[in-house]
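for the writeup, i need someone to sanity check this before i put it in the appendix. the sequnce is what the collaborator sent (i think, or maybe the updated version? ugh). structure was predicted straight from it, no edits. if anything looks off just tell me and ill rerun, i have time this weekend
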Amino acid sequence: MEFLTDPSGWWVEPFVDNVFMRRALWAALLAVLTTSVVGTWVVLRGLTFLGDAFAHGVLPGIAFAYIIGFSTTLGALAAALLMVAGVHLIRNFSPLSEETSIGVLFVGFLALAVVIMSSGAGAYSGDLTRFLFGSITGIDSGDLRRQAIAAAVSVGCTVLLHRALFVATFDEAQAQLAGMRPKLAHAALLALLAIAIVSSFEAVGSLLVFAFLVAPAATASLLVRRVPRIMMTAVVLGAIAALVGLLVSYHHDTAAGATMALATVIMLLVTLAVTGVVRALRRPPPDQQDAAADEPAPHHSH
């Protein structure tokens, strides 16, 4: 209960006394900003499976880049772009459904990562745990700059493409009639999704970035309705979860990325429970519902 009995020592001092905690907080907030604005469209368009596949799809690029001593960020980006191209090609030039193409590529990319890391070269490449589960306390100023650029690109492109993405999400036929090219908007969303995942995997890990991509936006969609409000609420909720998760990991010596991701999921579950109770309390009793159903329609005299 120190977060209540000693609020300054629990909430403030870790960031005052430790440079790595301040950098970790900035990295977490930038990751939340990047993933929440893109994650809103992922949730609204029902593309959570695609987001999960992308989060795993960067692994072979990371593994290969790590083995040859190349930039893991560029390796992850190359793998993500290959995933985008693969999904787009199979979706548009084969009779397979998009879910099937995503599933096939998901398994293929994940298997390729395991093959690379189980090879002779992979056995001596070191520990990839930081890329799987994140190493947010090891973030440096260069990582923060890359995250800031990715956040600016994600927010800027989301603003520019808002109308096209909105119409394509809720009425694809109308988008085609309006000449908005919904397939191109979908491809742009895939590219933004790749940027969000690649820019955040060093902070929270490629396996855990999915929680930040989906949970805050899903939670926000339970509380507000308009798309811009969902995005802003998702950023706020994600920031709170990141802050709490980071402090819990500091005080209790748990994995930072996993603790933050768990905090977003707990927030979603609590919101689901609270909104369910509120809806139940607002619902009229069964006898009143039956009475309202049996009540004759009002007669208007002319």
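The CA atoms of residues 57 and 109 lie 5 Å apart. The chain has 16 helices and no strands.
thx in advance!!
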